[in-house]
Each structure stands twice: as structure tokens, then as C-alpha cells.
Amino acid sequence: MLRFRRMRSLQKFATVHASVTNHFNQERSLTSRPPFKLNRAAALAVWRGLCAG
């Protein structure tokens, strides 16, 4: 947090980081491998769609 010179930059980073982290963070320890891979692939497809369009 000390690397941000302006509070606005910190808030902008925190907002984007929270959105991305929530999108990809899927409690790995709570799911078995096949559903985890499917969920991860779906999240990545959505992310690529958002970045492309």
C-alpha cells in the first residue's frame, strides 16, 4: 500500500483487484478436481470474452 502515491490510485487498484480475485478465487480445497477444472475453464472463457470485446 505504501507504493501508491495517491489514494485514488489505491482505490482504483483495489476495486479492479477485488473483481478479478473474486472471479477466479474458487475455494480449491472444497471441490474435487473435475468440477474445479470446469469452473476454472468457464471463468477463463468469460475473462477472455470480456478482454476481447
Query: Structural class per helix/strand content?
Result: mainly alpha
In whole angstroms, the N-to-C terminal distance is 31 Å
Average the pLDDT over all residues and give the rounded result: 79
Q: How many DSSP H or I helices?
A: 2
* Biggest sheet character: none
Order of helices and strands: HH
Strand-residue fraction? under 5%
Question: What does the overall shape look like?
Answer: elongated
Total number of strands? 0
Provide the gyration radius in Å.
15 Å
pLDDT under 50 segments (min length 5)?
A: none
Kindly state the percentage of residues in helix.
over 70%
What does this structure look like?
By secondary structure, the protein is mostly helical. It has helices at 7-24, 33-52. The model has no long low-confidence stretch (mean pLDDT 79).
Keyphrases for this structure?
mainly alpha
Brief sketch in words of this structure:
The protein is mainly alpha-helical and about 55 residues long.
What's the helix and strand layout?
Elements: H1 7-24, H2 33-52
